[in-house]
Amino acid sequence: MKIGYFSIGLGPLTNPEWVRAAATTAERVGFSTLWAPEHIVLVDRFSSKYPYPAGEFSTDTPIADPFTTLVFAAACTKTIRLATGICLVPEHNPLALAKTAATADRLSGGRLVLGTGIGWLEEEFRALGVPWERRAQRTREYIDVMRKLWREDRSSYSGEFVKFSDVRSFPKPANPGGIPVWFGGESEPALRRVAEYGDGWIGFNLTPDQQRQKVRRIEELLKASGRKRRDVELTASPYKHPVTTDDLERYRDAGLAEVTLLNFDILNTERDLTARIERMAKEFVEPAAKL
Fold it and tell me: Which residues form the domain of 37?
């Protein structure tokens, strides 16, 4: 089993020295993936329901652009995988996002995972001038568009939200198959997105038993979609649920390939950050490697 680290590009890890320290240390001690979140803008007052524990979402925590952050981390590292966690796809122009992601993937040597979602903060969409309605349908169309642009030398598309003819988009991703597109979310529609057109899934804030139920459901949906279990990589982030070494085996037995851990410690210096990541590696990365 693999262990990921969430996150860079958040709070003090928007500073270059902290990003460098986190990225190089995480790679050195064996973490498999670095995750960077996204919110383009935040608002102090919102009526949208945060999908995870109440009171945990702060609107005054700095959040950097995930692609810029991950490219910076890529320049500091050689092998660790780099993932958006998550990119709010419907808030972007898909042609611009395709180029940004392809450039980041190429500069990282093919290490990018495009972790995606449809968004939960309606007020953010409104501030950006993006329609909140039909954002799930918009997301699917945008991902179809991006995959065409990554794959084809000259592309055309005519859909509900996007129309263009005979355009070229370069550079292409480092790998001919394009960039893996993973979905976050635990709802039935989110699991359907994974099964129907995703390359992976990250389940958030779920216990091993809850993850097991979601994995079984994804397997059912994959079969219904004519796809195989091997077509997707399934991962988990326990978020606020306490995790022990024994839990890693339970997550593995639930069918997950990776567990992504969040660092909630209050850290004052880069040295504190490095020491904390090293402790996490001894506690989780080393035991996970033996499973």
Answer: 2-289
Query: HSE on the CB side for 103, CA within 13 Å?
Result: 12
pLDDT at 53 over 90: no
Rounded-to-5 percentages of helix, strand, coil across the chain = 45, 20, 40
Whether 13 contacts 7, CB under 8 Å: yes
For 248-268, what is each residue's pLDDT tens digit? 999 999 999 999 999 878 789
Alpha carbon distance 259, 237 (integer Å): 6
Distance CA 123, CA 179 (A): 29
| CATH code for position 46 | 3.20.20.30
Is there a contact between 70 and 21 (Cβ–Cβ < 8 Å)?
no
**pLDDT for res 235:** 97
- Residue 199 pLDDT: 98
- Dump strand ranges (E) for the chain: 2-6, 33-36, 81-84, 87-88, 112-117, 155-158, 163-167, 181-184, 200-204, 233-237, 258-262
Which token pair is 130?
A: 């993006």
Pairing assessment for the beta strands 112-117 and 181-184 based on DSSP bridges: parallel
Specify the number of domains making up the chain: 1
Encode pLDDT of 128-179 as tens digits: 999 999 999 999 999 999 999 999 999 999 999 999 999 999 999 999 999 9
Please give the pLDDT value at position 54.
57
SS3 per-residue string spanning 191-234: HHHHHHHCCEEEEECCCHHHHHHHHHHHHHHHHHCCCCHHHCEE
